[in-house]
């Protein structure tokens, strides 16, 4: 049986997960910027 | 004449300000991981009084209380105060039943004369809980709001830092389906209706995204009305009462907290589900109240905006002539925060100004009008693409359900105009074949009419959205209103509401509290 985590352990785990998620958002921002660059390329190619 | 033309071009390009500023706001989210408050957090379970203002909330109250009792939080540190604003439905009976079910945890406070609005109702409860020293923190919520089990403890851990005065959570639209499929619904059921799905997407941008960037900036615009946690110290410092003079009591509380030097934190991983209007009429009423409240806040705190230097508090206390008793620590006066606030508030003005200027240019210099139009809509498309794709990635589970509404947020017609601006050749090819087929291609009047229509559209879309509101309760409205919103855009509807708020404020219309009716549609997986 898995022992119940202490509040501090639980906080540490959740904070680690949250920080990982927030770091991931920085990558997602770059992906979204990439989509914008594709549109700019389309514009340059079709005109 | 040349100067006038360029003034008109500048007025056209003002139309991109809201989306460009929104893109800047979204860019800041990428920096959020560097500005998290977790280093100052600790496991902390203050004795928390949960305040639920309630007027005829029998349909939703029971489920909300049950969810509160299921929070991952020490039961002995929780007390739910239902402040019954002279309800005439079964609200008292529901509260009594829940008090019997959870002995010692539920308190029924009743006002015999009600109807003055949420702030008055809350103040009735605040007076009572502040009179005892049991409460160490207070959570103000709405009766329809459903808290996910870990949400409160994720919020209270920020209060372990004495510099934090208030914490808010991520409010998600929770009408049937968004929070999970209702029992028995097919696997692919999308839940809710078109409007709640638009709101679902809007809340990714307005809550999950905007509040993250405000965390980065160090200035929060508004604690969500359904999820605002205050330390006792903060509540006492701002006077122990909620402002009753405006329609934006949540925003006033948020600004007052920051003006006194306390920090306000948005905790994006504390998730709370709320029921939102599923009719344009209901949404209009709610948003008119919010928009009018924001106009009132803008006027009331006019000294703050774009004054980054009013931050430090003089040693020995505030000067007698200081505009606010304490202005330390916050960044409400920063240029960025001012841009966030006003670009959204003034968006309808920018849209009308851009349209009017394009039309004027059309009649004095068609070529310049065409160039300005292209610059405006290409910028709009690029910012829209960035914001929409990023927003859908911020909250993928919601994004999967609302991606159609996300794409159509600016409306189908605006989307076509944007595509025509970025890729005119393929669209001209399609138009040529389509119009040739009906024998209309080559009609000069038609081309000029289409051009003029696209110029009018930025401002005109608001009129179409308003028309959707007018038609909603009339014959065929169930079909025509959603169609018009998909054509004109949900964004145009919000701008129309804001414009209506300006008109009401200018006319000095009565400030009345029109309550949003809740029916218990929030359905989330247990």
Q: Ends of chain B: how far apart?
A: 67 Å
Radius of gyration of chain A: 20 Å
Strand proportion of chain A, as a percent range, falls in under 5%
Outline the biggest β-sheet of chain B: 8 strands, mixed
Helix/strand/pairing category of chain B? alpha/beta
Helix content of chain A: over 70%
The major β-sheet of chain A equals:
none
Q: Which structural class is indicated by helix and strand composition of chain A?
A: mainly alpha
Percentage of residues in DSSP E strands of chain B: 5-15%
Any idea of the CATH topology of the largest domain in chain B? Answer: Spore Coat Polysaccharide Biosynthesis Protein SpsA, Chain A
Shape label of chain B: globular
Order of helices and strands of chain A: H
Low-pLDDT sequence parts of chain A: none
Description:
Chain A is mostly helical and 47 residues long. In chain A, 85% of the residues lie in helices and 0% in strands. Chain A has one helix at 7-46. The longest helix of chain A is centred in the middle third of the chain and has 40 residues, at 7-46. The model of chain A has no long low-confidence stretch (mean pLDDT 90). Chain B contains 19 helices and 8 strands. Chain B has an 8-stranded mixed beta sheet, with helices on both faces. In chain B, helix 13 (366-394) crosses helix 15. Chain B is globular and about 80 Å long. The N and C termini of chain B lie far apart (67 Å).
For this entry, give a set of tags.
heterodimer, A: 47 residues, mainly alpha, 1 helix, 0% strand, rod-shaped, B: 526 residues, alpha/beta, Spore Coat Polysaccharide Biosynthesis Protein SpsA, Chain A, 2 domains, eight-stranded mixed beta sheet, 19 helices, globular
Question: TL;DR of this structure?
Answer:
The complex is a heterodimer of chains A (47) and B (526). Chain A is mostly helical.
Secondary structure: elements and pairs:
The complex is a heterodimer of chains A (47) and B (526).
Chain A: H1 7-46
Chain B: H1 2-13, H2 17-29, E1 48-54, H3 58-69, E2 78-85, H4 91-101, E3 106-111, H5 118-130, E4 137-140, E5 146-147, H6 151-156, E6 164-173, H7 194-217, E7 228-231, H8 232-237, H9 249-259, E8 263-274, H10 280-300, H11 335-345, H12 347-364, H13 366-394, H14 396-407, H15 412-422, H16 424-437, H17 444-471, H18 477-488, H19 490-506
Parallel strand pairs in B: 1-2, 1-4, 2-3, 6-8
Antiparallel strand pairs in B: 4-7, 5-8, 6-7
């Amino acid at each position: 049986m898995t022992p119940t985590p202490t509040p501090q352990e639980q906080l540490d785990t959740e904070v680690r997960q949250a920080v990982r998620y927030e770091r991931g958002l920085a990558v997602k921002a770059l992906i979204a910027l990439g989509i914008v660059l594709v549109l700019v390329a389309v514009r340059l190619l079709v005109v | 004449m040349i100067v006038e033309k360029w003034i008109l071009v500048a007025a056209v390009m003002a139309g991109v300000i809201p989306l460009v500023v929104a893109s800047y706001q979204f860019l800041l989210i990428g920096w959020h991981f560097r500005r998290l408050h977790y280093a100052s957090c600790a496991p902390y379970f203050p004795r928390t009084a949960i305040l639920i203002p309630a007027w005829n909330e029998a349909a939703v109250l029971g489920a909300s209380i049950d969810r509160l009792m299921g929070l991952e939080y020490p039961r002995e540190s929780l007390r739910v105060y239902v402040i019954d604003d002279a309800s005439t439905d079964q609200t008292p009976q529901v509260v009594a039943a829940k008090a019997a079910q959870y002995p010692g945890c539920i308190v029924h406070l009743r006002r015999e004369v009600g109807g003055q609005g949420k702030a008055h109702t809350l103040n009735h409860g605040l007076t009572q809980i502040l009179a005892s020293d049991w409460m160490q923190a207070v959570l103000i919520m709405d009766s329809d709001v459903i808290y996910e089990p870990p949400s409160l403890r994720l919020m209270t851990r920020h209060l372990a830092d004495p510099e934090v005065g208030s914490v808010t959570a991520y409010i998600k639209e929770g009408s049937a389906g968004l929070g999970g499929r209702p029992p028995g619904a097919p696997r692919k059921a999308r839940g809710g209706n078109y409007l709640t799905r638009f709101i679902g997407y809007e809340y990714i941008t307005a809550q999950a995204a905007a509040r993250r960037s405000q965390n980065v900036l160090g200035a929060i615009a508004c604690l969500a009305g359904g999820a605002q946690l205050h330390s006792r110290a903060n509540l006492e410092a701002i006077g122990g009462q909620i402002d009753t003079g405006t329609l934006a009591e949540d925003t006033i509380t948020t600004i007052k907290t920051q003006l006194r030097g306390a920090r306000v934190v948005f905790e994006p991983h504390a998730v709370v589900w709320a029921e939102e209007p599923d009719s344009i009429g209901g949404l209009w009423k709610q948003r008119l109240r919010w928009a009018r409240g924001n106009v009132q806040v803008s006027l009331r705190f006019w000294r703050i905006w774009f004054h980054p230097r009013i931050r430090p508090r003089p040693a020995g206390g505030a000067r007698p002539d200081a505009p606010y008793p304490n202005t330390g620590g916050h960044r409400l006066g920063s240029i960025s925060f001012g841009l966030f606030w006003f670009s959204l508030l003034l968006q309808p003005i920018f849209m009308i100004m851009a349209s009017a200027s394009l039309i004027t240019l059309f009649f004095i210099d068609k070529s310049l009008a065409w160039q300005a139009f292209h610059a405006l809509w290409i910028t709009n498309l690029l910012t829209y693409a960035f914001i929409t794709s990023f927003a859908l990635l911020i909250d993928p589970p919601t994004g999967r359900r609302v991606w159609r509404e996300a794409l159509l947020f600016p409306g189908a017609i605006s989307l076509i105009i944007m595509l025509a601006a970025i890729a005119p050749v393929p669209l001209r090819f399609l138009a040529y074949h389509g119009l040739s087929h009906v024998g209309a291609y080559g009609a000069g009047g038609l081309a000029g009419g289409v051009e003029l229509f696209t110029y009018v559209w930025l401002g005109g879309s608001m009129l179409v959205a308003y028309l959707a509101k007018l038609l909603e309760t009339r014959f065929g409205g169930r079909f025509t209103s959603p169609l018009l919103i998909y054509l004109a855009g949900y964004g145009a509807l919000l701008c129309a509401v804001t414009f209506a708020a300006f008109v009401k404020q200018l006319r000095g219309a009565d400030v009345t509290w029109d309550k949003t009716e809740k029916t218990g549609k929030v359905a989330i997986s247990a």
